[in-house]
Design a protein that fits this description.
The chain has 8 helices and 4 strands, in the order αααββαβαααβα. The strands form 2 sheets. The chain has a two-stranded antiparallel sheet. A two-stranded antiparallel ribbon has the order 3-4. The protein is globular. Helix content is 66%, strand content 7%. It is mainly alpha-helical. It has one domain (3-221).
Length: 233
């Protein structure tokens, strides 16, 4: 099997795992909403009991560990593993909403508001926002994995680092800035789509500005020219 074919196979398996994990996440949320929002999820948010809050915080942390562990086990290089993590996280997030829609009919539209995450502070925003970011993660992560399968290595550049950092700050602020709604039981203020667009744009630009090269062995075997057509695993 060629390295490229192997990368595609691993990509498919990661997608299947993440989609199944998305269902597990949706099932947990169905149970939580049945307990805390029996009439249907809506703002203002209801506060977890302290004991259950710590359980939920550790569950979210465990989710990140599981997604990261699958990525580490499936990847062969740092970029391959990072790409696998992006794909796993993105597919998990997107399919979570798809499964939740199938199970409960929610969200009715992508503009429905949701509580997205609790670490380190609660995140809130319309479903459109995490879905857009997740789609960028899936596309970027799959690209990284497929390049790694062809023996192409990526190198971080200063512009890509600055853009990624700026995008992260912009997106996190867009989700966590409304502490009145997340911590004090108020109705949420209008979401900043400007921050979402800026953050998503920075992420796309950061991915495109990664520098591509070839591993030393592949350059030597190919006379330093074009990449080998069919490198072997």
């Amino acid at each position: 099997m060629t390295a490229g074919t192997s990368a595609r196979s691993r990509l498919v398996l990661i997608i299947l795992f993440a989609a199944a994990f998305g269902y597990v996440e949706a099932a947990v949320v169905v149970y939580l909403r049945a307990l805390y929002y029996p009439g249907g999820f809506q703002f203002p948010l209801r506060i977890f009991e302290p004991g259950l809050l710590f359980v939920e915080l550790f569950r979210e942390a465990a989710t990140l560990v599981m997604l990261g562990a699958v990525a580490v086990l499936s990847g062969r290089t740092h970029w391959d593993r990072f790409g696998a993590f992006l794909v796993a996280f993105g597919v998990w997030d997107i399919t979570f909403y798809l499964w939740l829609r199938v199970a409960t009919g929610w969200p009715a539209t992508l503009l429905e508001w949701d509580i997205l995450f609790l670490l380190p502070l609660p995140w809130i925003g319309p479903v459109l926002a995490p879905s857009l970011i997740a789609a960028i993660m899936v596309a970027g992560g799959a690209w990284m994995m497929l390049l790694a399968g062809r023996g192409i290595i990526l190198k971080v550049t200063l512009p890509s680092t600055v853009l990624a950092a700026a995008g992260t700050v912009s997106l996190l602020y867009s989700f966590m800035r409304d502490t009145g709604a997340t911590l004090h039981g108020e109705m949420p203020a209008p979401y900043s789509y400007l921050l979402l667009g800026a953050g998503a744009g920075c992420y796309v630009a950061a991915i495109l500005m990664l520098r591509r090269g070839y591993s030393g062995a592949e350059e030597q075997g190919n006379g330093g020219g074009s990449p080998p057509v069919s490198p072997r695993t």
